């Protein structure tokens, strides 16, 4: 079983939470691959450099200067610090962007109403160099992947980390049994947004449909969950959503987080 | 033959020269490994962030803030842009710091008269994870190595790129026949510093000694050349010094640069 985990800003921006996560991640057995987002550090560094973050509909507009910042922060500062910490914890981590070994090809998003700048759309699992990733895993390394992709013409592109994780999972599912774990700020999908402990153990297309109708899941959760179901339909064996503190339990199949399932 | 090349600021800071070098580097046949320095970009970014570069005896003092800057710039901006450009040129590059696959262990320099901060000293070839590098080369990847090392306790350290190149060369010489090419701003060691074309074809310990006595080589060249001779004595087969424009000729054994040799 290949375990792929995605962590986001809530973990990366909190040194205590990040350290706890990395200790648990180092303890996960078997081949594994970590995808990280960028967090607020990119905006903070950008602002110190005099570059104001430009967001449209919750997405960062990546102009040339911003691309430099995310390359520095995601590919350098965040990625290499995670790698060094994991190595100190005994995990044989190797930090990669989509350009390294050309593991993730993308296309610069075409300009329609909004020019997102240097943002990369990954077409699908065929954009992943699964052979290279397999060679890296076979050599005993644990990839730590920054959400930067390659236009195959020498330019890096900024890509959503959730997307990177799911496309990697689908591509690797051709050879491996894959479990994909999304860590976010909640313990899982909640029956009641006000009750942290109302975690839905298992979400099927039927229960998801009911929860959408009742308004129990909404906004930012919808693309995450749509994406999770699509990933299962594309051959990934297990998909779970939960908090980073539960990563070890989720990876080991203990009750934790919400399991996304095609059948009840 | 494993070819190891080190490029410095004069190439990295000049997009035209960098592109020309990368085209040639992509054309070098056989297993290869590129070590790059940082150039002036780290100082420029640091200054924009309000961090003044602190130099003592030509060495950067690496406080915690400066370590963040060099991690971003060397490990992110410079390294990943080189990797993306090389991938576009058909070279299967993979960007690494000393923390990735723990390839370069170092010790934080002890404080004597000067506190260099987060600067790493590499003990010797035993600090190199040659097995990991060999696995990466065997998998068909060309490492691009940033001058950052790992204290094995979760912290990156800033290390001189010339040192990184020479220690890597010596460590890899256990398994490979290695040629080590240092690219700098001159065509080679010059008989006459004022005459760009007075390149010494071959420098032996005897001719080096004479040139030191006559003052033809001095200052910054001395540690470079001392280091080059030591590398040969430690098992590296070929060491040359020349300009980046001649990297292909040097790699292919055509007349270019200065060959450092133990015998005439």
Automatic annotation (TrEMBL), chains A, B:
InterPro entries: AceGlu_kinase-like_sf (IPR036393), AcgluKinase_fam (IPR004662), ArgB (IPR037528), Asp/Glu/Uridylate_kinase (IPR001048). The record marks 6, 224 as: Transition state stabilizer. It is found in: Cytoplasm. One of its GO terms (cellular component) is cytoplasm. Signal peptide: none annotated. GO terms for biological process: L-arginine biosynthetic process via ornithine. Substrate binds at residues 38-39, 60, 158. It catalyses: N-acetyl-L-glutamate + ATP = N-acetyl-L-glutamyl 5-phosphate + ADP. Pathway: Amino-acid biosynthesis; L-arginine biosynthesis; N(2)-acetyl-L-ornithine from L-glutamate: step 2/4. Keywords: Amino-acid biosynthesis, Arginine biosynthesis, ATP-binding, Cytoplasm, Kinase, Nucleotide-binding, Transferase. Belongs to the acetylglutamate kinase family. ArgB subfamily. Catalyzes the ATP-dependent phosphorylation of N-acetyl-L-glutamate. This is Acetylglutamate kinase. It comes from Pontibacter burrus.
